[in-house]
Amino acid sequence: MNMRVAILHNYTLSGSGSSTYVLGLVKSLVKLGHHVVVISRELDYEKYGCFGSVFSHDGEGIIPVTPRGPSAGANLAVGYSLTFEPYVGIETHPECRNAAYFSSCSQSVLDEYLLKSIKAVKDIVHAESIEILNANHEVPLPYVAARVKEVTGIPFIATLHGSHIEYVLRRDPIRYRPYVEEGLASASCIIVTTKSVQDRCIANASVDPARFVLIPVGVDTSRFKPRDLNATPLFIENEIDHKPIDLREISNHGPVVAFIGKATADKGLHLMPYLLAGVTQRIHKARLLIVGGGDLLETLLCFARGEISSDSFLSKTSGSAQVVRDYLAHHPAEWDQLLKKVLEQQCVVLGAQPFEIVQNVLSIADVCVIPSLIDEALPMVTLEALSSGSLPIVRNYSGFKEIIIRIKETVPELAPALSIGAETTTLLSDFVDCTTNALEEFSNPQQKALLVQALRNLAVSEYDWQIIASRISSLYEKAAR
Predict the structure, then answer these.
(1) Residue 77 pairs with which residues in a beta bridge?
(2) Distance CA 233, CA 246 (A)
(3) C-alpha 282: how far from its chain's center?
(4) What average pLDDT is seen over the chain?
(5) 235-462, what's its fold?
(6) Among 146, 211, 213, 424, which has the highest number of CB atoms less than 10 A from its own CB?
C-alpha cells in the first residue's frame, strides 16, 4: 500500500549518522512507491538528487522554493526546510554551530522552538495530506508529532538513534524526561536501530518495553562495493604533506586500515597513529587512511608532520588519553622513532571528504577500525564497510553487539578479530591485536576473496536499504489502519 509519509528530522541530511539514515530511508521509501515528504533543517535539498518540489516554513507559513512537480510519479521526494528561529540542536551536529543547544537553552527559547515546530508540521501535514509521520530521535520530535496528532489525528512512529539520550536526556533529565515520555507514549510504535538504544532509553525514561521494534540501520549496497580492479586512477591530496596520491593504488602496496568518522577524541581518532605503529610490528607494509573532519584534525596533522610531540597530541584529547598511555607503558623508548616513521611513510590523512571518496576508501580497505569510546547506536560506516567487503573492527559493547554476532555466525574465520571487550585499560592493545589478526586472515589472496564476498553477502541479504525500508513500510501501514 502506497502512503503519504512525512519524515521529521531536526538536522540537515548530511554530517551525522542519523542524517545519513534519514536520507537512505527516504530514497528507499520513494522506490517502494510512497509519497515521501521530509521536514528538516536542510537548506539544499536539490544536491541530493532525490527531491523534486522544495518548500520552506518560516514559522508563519509555507513558502514555495521550487515549483511543485510530479514528485511521487517521478520517484522524487518533497523537501520542506524549517528556517525559523530559534533553532535548538545538539553540539555534535555541524549545522548547530550558531544554534541554541538543548543542554543550555532557556525554557522560553525551548518553548518558542517547540510551538513553531508544531505549527510548521501541522501546516505541512494539511498541505501534503499526510497519512503517517515518522519522528526521528528521542526528543523533541516525538513530542512535536504527539501534539500534531492531538489536532489532526495523524498517527506517528518514532525512530530512536541514541544521540539525544546522551546529549539531551542524560544531561538534563529533569527538564527533558517529561518530553521524552509524553512523546513516545503517543507513538504507534518505537523503532530502535540496536538493542543498546532500547536499553538506554528504558534506563533513562519510563517507556513500555513491549512497544519497541528492533530494525537495524540500512546500507545502499549498490553504492558500497568491493574494489573495482578496472577503475581509473583517483588522485587526492594527502593533507599531511599536501602531495597527491592515487587512492586506488594504495592497496597495491600493502594492506589498508581505514578510519572513517568524526575527527574527535570521543570517536577514538587519537588511538589510530598508535594502532598503526602497533600493527606494523607484524604487518610491516600496513597503511592507514583517515577520513573525517573534526576538532582534533588539525592537532593530528601537526603530530603527523612532527610539529608537536606525542604528549602534546594526547593532551588535546579531552581526558581520554589514558587509553593510549596504558598501551605506551608497555613499549620501549624507541617506540617514538617507530611512530615517527609510520606517520611519515604509511599514514594518509584526507580530512572531511564527500560521499564518493568515502566509498572509494572503503572499497580498498581490508579493515575499517571504529574505536569509539562512547555509547552509541551502530554507526552507519559499520554497514558501509561490511557492504564494501571490509571488516569493521569494533568493541563488543553498546550498539555493536548485534553486528558482531552476525559476522561471527556468518564468517567464523574472522571471530578472533572481533574479540574486543568493553574494558578500556587494554583497549588499544586489543584493537592492535584484532586488527593484526584480521589483516593476517586477509593476507592470502584466495582466502581474502572468499572473506570479502562473505562480508558483502551478509550486508546484501540482511541490511540492504530496500529490505529495511520494506520492514518500516509495513509498520506505517499497520499504524495507519
Answers:
(1) 51
(2) 6
(3) 31
(4) 93
(5) Rossmann fold (3.40.50)
(6) 146
